[in-house]
């Protein structure tokens, strides 16, 4: 009977959540308020909630408890105690494919419409595969710092952690792996999604074209792209900027761990005109632009339900302002790397077209970085050169 109590509690939480804050904060506040739930209770109830949100658009206007049960079945890859208690017949069929599970649930083929606003997606995305990918929590990926592969694999092996080496720089691990207890993060390896790591291939094109002396990471956030650039391009002077001072403080800590010392840090609102003290004559500008984050919603599945399509236009305008603010700092012959973790055309291909409208900007390569076949994020990256 306790498992049905979990079901009722999950339904109550879902019906009281309005999307105004990240769900992990909302449910943490809920459990802080209601202390009757033990550790296992919290884990099981949270799991049911997250399964529900993985149904996204499909669950809209359907009975919540019914959708929670169906979601648990669709999201489960192995038999488990919770599903056995709720529906033993489904637990016995849990190894079926998603298509077979949908048939069992009498969901017509092609109607498991999970992701919102699919009409706005970039053209190269397989909508059916992308939809289904949200039923599974993405894995964790680490990028190995130069010379650290053996050290990292030895530590993971010793700790008996399952891992898969995708290439000499990238290791894939289960989502819940506690890496901070196993590795010297940022020194030996950086937690960085597989698709994010793939932007380094475009940096390699820049490196092959000649020496790079000045790089500006203009939307630096936690500094992951800056560390990738250091490992890919070698020694250069780095400028990092962000609008948020707290983020820059966290970045400084991370850079110390990564042994990056030759850089300038700048707090700047790139949406405002006449911003002072911006870098000049950059060989490479990296713009990992603010975006809807729609390629990462497998990690925050509540966004599949609580998404306002107006955000796409809002972020597109913001991205245009940032691009317009930073391109004057790019020297002739320099490179501009535009990146988003969005899957929407207005933030990706349309922004690439906007960039090319700037005098002298030549597209070198653009690509949708499809993470969904690998349980990774999906991103967009485009490299330009100023002629």
Could you characterize what this model shows?
The structure is a single chain. The protein is an alpha/beta fold and 387 residues long. It folds into three domains: 2-113; 140-191, Alpha-Beta Plaits (2-Layer Sandwich), CATH 3.30.70; 194-386, Rossmann fold. It is built from 15 helices and eleven strands. The protein has helices spanning 2-16, 23-33, 39-53, 64-75, 81-86, 88-92, 98-104, 127-133, 149-158, 194-198, 200-208, 224-233, 245-257, 310-326, 349-356, and strands at 140-144, 164-167, 170-173, 189-191, 214-217, 237-242, 263-267, 282-288, 330-340, 361-369, 379-386. The strands form two sheets. Strands 7-6-5-8-9-11-10 form a seven-stranded mixed β-sheet, with helices on both faces. The chain has a four-stranded antiparallel β-sheet with strand order 2-3-1-4, with no helix packed on it. Helix 1 (2-16) packs across helix 3 and helix 11 (200-208) packs parallel to helix 12. The termini are far apart.
The domain count comes to: 3
Task: Tell me which CATH architecture of the largest domain applies here.
Answer: 3-Layer(aba) Sandwich
Average predicted local confidence, pLDDT? 95
Helix tally?
15
The helix/strand class is: alpha/beta
Helix content: 25-40%
What shape does the CA trace take?
globular
Going across the major beta sheet, what is the strand order?
7-6-5-8-9-11-10
Low-confidence stretches: none
Question: In whole angstroms, how far apart are the ends?
Answer: 69 Å
Task: Give the percentage of residues in beta strands.
Answer: 15-25%
Q: What integer value in Å does the Rg equal?
A: 22 Å
CATH class of the largest domain: Alpha Beta
Q: Biggest sheet: strands, sense, closure? A: 7 strands, mixed
User: What is the ordering of alpha helices and beta strands?
Assistant: HHHHHHHHEHEEEHHEHEHEEHEHEE
Kindly report the CATH topology of the largest domain: Rossmann fold
Strand tally: 11
CATH superfamily of the largest domain: Vaccinia Virus protein VP39
């Amino acid at each position: 009977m306790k498992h049905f109590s979990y079901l009722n509690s999950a339904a109550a939480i879902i019906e009281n959540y309005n999307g105004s804050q990240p769900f992990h904060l909302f449910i943490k506040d809920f459990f802080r308020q209601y202390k009757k739930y033990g550790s296992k209770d919290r884990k099981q109830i949270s799991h049911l909630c997250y399964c529900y949100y993985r149904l996204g658009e499909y669950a809209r206007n359907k009975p919540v408890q019914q959708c929670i049960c169906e979601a648990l079945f669709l999201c489960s890859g192995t038999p488990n105690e919770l599903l056995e208690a709720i529906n033993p017949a489904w637990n016995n069929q849990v190894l079926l494919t998603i298509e077979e599970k949908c048939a069992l649930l009498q969901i017509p083929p092609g109607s498991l419409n999970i992701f919102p606003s699919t009409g706005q997606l970039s053209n190269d995305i397989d909508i059916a595969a992308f939809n289904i990918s949200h039923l599974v929590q993405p894995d964790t990926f680490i990028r190995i710092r130069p010379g650290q592969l053996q050290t990292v694999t030895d530590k993971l092996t010793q700790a008996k952690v399952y891992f898969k080496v995708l290439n000499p720089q990238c290791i894939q691990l289960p989502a819940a792996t506690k890496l901070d207890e196993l590795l010297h993060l940022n020194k030996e390896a950086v937690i960085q999604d597989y698709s994010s790591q793939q932007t380094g291939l475009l940096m390699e094109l820049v490196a092959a074209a000649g020496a790079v002396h000045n790089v500006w990471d203009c939307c630096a956030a936690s500094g992951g792209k800056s560390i990738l650039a250091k490992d890919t391009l070698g020694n250069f002077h780095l400028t990092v900027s962000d609008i948020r001072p707290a983020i820059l403080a966290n970045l400084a800590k991370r850079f110390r761990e990564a042994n990056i010392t030759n850089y300038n840090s700048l707090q700047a609102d790139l949406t405002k005109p006449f911003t002072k003290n911006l870098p000049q004559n950059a060989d490479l500008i990296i713009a990992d632009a603010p975006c809807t984050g729609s390629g990462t919603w497998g990690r925050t599945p509540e966004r599949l339900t609580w998404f306002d399509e107006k955000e796409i236009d809002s972020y597109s305008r913001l991205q245009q302002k940032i691009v317009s603010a930073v391109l004057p700092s790019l020297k002739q012959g320099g490179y501009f790397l535009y990146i988003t973790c969005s899957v929407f055309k207005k933030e990706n291909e349309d922004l690439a077209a906007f960039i090319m409208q700037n005098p002298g900007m030549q597209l070198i390569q653009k690509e949708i970085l499809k993470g969904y076949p690998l349980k990774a994020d999906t991103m967009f990256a485009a490299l330009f050169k100023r002629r």
